[in-house]
Design a protein that fits this description.
With 250 residues, this protein is an alpha/beta fold. It is 48% helix and 13% strand. A 7-stranded parallel beta sheet has the order 3-2-1-4-5-6-7, sandwiched between helices.
Length: 250
């Protein structure tokens, strides 16, 4: 068995690689930082690890990743690469936001499309798309990030239904965690007053649930959020989120 993981150089992507290696999976790990990938490869000495350095904000790089793996059978695709950016939408940097859309949305779309075609042809395979609890909500002060995760969630749900209607055995899941203790908040320039959950815990849960065919994976207390959101007016949700995301640790 072999899994391909994007954004594998740190955080939950790295922890998913570690957990899958423990389960005996060979790996293809993809990220921009070659040194981090090499460190991970050396750490996971018990399995075959192929490192691909790529900037997934560029469509050609996404296609290159697919071409470089055509010679091996990928059993699981984990679209984990992504980042956020905090601030008022009117003030945040446009070029950074466009790179975020390309990474969080376009790269996931391209890779899902390419590998899904192969999975459907052989009627096996698992795709795990890393969304966020943000995918269920509007996100003042993280507007673009929340919007990208809405895309990931809804795309995954639609594909899931299409596969079910075809009677396909291919599995597709969306991981929708709350805050996780990773480098994400440093990159996004935001720190919340609540502590995140353990990255290894979420990684293990996500992989196990995805392999069982669970559509939406909600770790811990966030499992109640979608239900609660149906009971609360959207304007109140936006007000609460704005206040919540304004409370940063200095």
């Amino acid at each position: 068995m072999r899994a391909l993981i994007t954004g594998a150089s740190s955080g939950i992507g790295r922890d998913m690689a570690r957990y899958l290696a423990q389960k005996g999976y060979d790996l293809v790990v993809v990220a921009r930082r070659a040194d981090r990938l090499q460190e991970l490869k050396e750490e996971l000495s018990g399995v075959d690890v192929k490192c691909i350095t790529a900037d997934l904000s560029k469509t050609d790089e996404c296609k290159r990743v697919y071409e470089e793996t055509k010679g091996v059978e990928i059993d699981m695709l984990i679209n984990n690469a992504g980042f956020g950016l905090a601030g008022d939408f009117v003030d945040t940097d446009l070029d950074t936001e466009l790179m975020m859309v390309d990474t969080n949305v376009k790269a996931l779309h391209v890779l899902t499309k390419l590998y899904l075609k192969d999975f459907v042809k052989r009627d096996s395979g698992t795709i795990l798309n890393v969304a966020s609890i943000a995918g269920f909500m509007p996100g003042p002060l993280l507007a673009t990030y929340y919007a990208t995760k809405n895309y990931v969630l809804r795309l995954t749900q639609a594909i899931y239904k299409e596969l079910k209607k075809k009677g396909s055995k291919v599995k597709v899941s969306a991981l929708c965690p709350g805050p996780i203790n990773t480098e994400f908040f440093d990159v996004a320039n935001v720190k919340f007053l609540i502590s995140g959950v353990s990255s290894p815990f979420v990684a293990k849960l996500a992989v196990d649930k995805a392999l069982k065919g669970k559509l939406i994976i909600l770790p811990g207390i966030v499992k109640f959020v979608p239900f609660l959101l149906r009971l609360v007016p959207q304007k109140l949700v936006m007000s609460v989120l704005y206040k919540f995301q304004s409370l940063r640790r200095e």
